[in-house]
Amino acid sequence: MKRVGNLYCQISAWDNLRAAFHLARRGARRARQAVEFERHLDDNLRTLSRSLQSGSLRLSGYTQFLIKDPKERLITAPAFADRVLHHAVMRVCEPYFESSLVSDTFACRKGKGRLAALNRTTEFAQRFGFFLKLDVRKYFESIPHRILLEALSRRFKDNQLLVLFELLIRSHESRLGCGLPIGSLTSQHFANFYLGHLDRFVKQTLRCPAYVRYMDDFALWANEPRLLREHWLAVEDFLRLHLGLELKEGTHLNAVRHGMNFCGFRIFPGWRELNRRSRRRFAARMAELERLGLAGQTPERELQARADSLVAFAKEGRSWHFRKWALARASTA
User: Fold this and answer.
1) How far is CA 149 from CA 31, 168, 253, 321, 323, in A?
2) CA distance 51 to 27
3) Alpha carbons 152 and 166: distance in angstroms, whole number
4) Which residues contact 32 (CB under 8 A, 6 or more apart)?
């Protein structure tokens, strides 16, 4: 793949930084850091541009907090000024990350996403008899900085950009020399790019035509379980030897007629339904919205928007009877 260069000067361009600010501000208009940054917008953008051009850029650090959605995650959110920087970087570099990925990788990509991944897995469940479902163990925490930076240097030949990439990557460690922060825009793209090497190994070396990846969750399909067992061992070796990663315990190899958990749904040949965890989550959140509505402390428009989002997710599979039951249960709780 041809290396790309001459991108760094585009990142620090005034129009790019201003557009990056508006992207970073979406959903954070009332946040204190966003308000303060906007109060002196031109000065802050000018400072950011000069620091990029001079090579004197310093990051502002992270804020960490726990969420449970549905499993507990430590979110490491960058300061607002750094969010502007991240958007400025990705407005220029995203097309080149995108062009390095295979078509059956769906996370963090325009025109792809979770629903497209679900549709592709449902298609493969109809065409093949067996599936192999795999997951990388503690993926974001485990990405080795050195190997990631080497991979980036094979894709980009702009030395100033590579120095900026290194600054962003080494600004956070889960353990010595490893880890990307969950909650950072650049981390999503770095992580997706990193497993692009696995995608090409599966598609080009193993020659597996039926493959889907959504960030660190991925699956392969075939009509012979023996072939999938061979792929399993090959993928495990590739991750360990070339990417410094390990598979999570709980790998599943089974017949597609028994169903496969993926992206919150259980996939069967020709149809899908909410999996057990998603059903529990849907019912609990609907009950919570009902309680908030009765308390009268949350605007009705906000409650309706949150309910619509939950229903839209559930409607991506067979869920009418379950939704009817969950709504009735919430109203009587």
Assistant:
1) 33, 11, 33, 49, 46
2) 26
3) 10
4) none
CB atoms within 10 A of CB 317: 20
Which amino acid is present at 320? W
pLDDT higher than threshold 70 for residue 333: no
Structure tokens at 115: 């629903």
Question: 């919570």: which residue's tokens?
Answer: 288
Q: How would DSSP label each residue in 94-136? A: HHHHHTTS-TTB-TT-TT-SHHHHHHHHHHHHHH-SEEEEEEB
Q: How far apart are the C-alpha atoms of 13 and 303, rounded to whole Å?
A: 41
Residue entry with tokens 């650049």: 186
Radius of gyration of the chain (CA): 22
Q: What is the DSSP letter of 257?
A: G
Compute CA 7 distance to the chain's CA centroid, rounded to the nearest angstrom: 24
Q: Name the pLDDT band for 1 (thresholds 50, 70, 90).
A: low
CA distances from 210 to 136, 174, 187, 214 (A): 19, 33, 27, 14
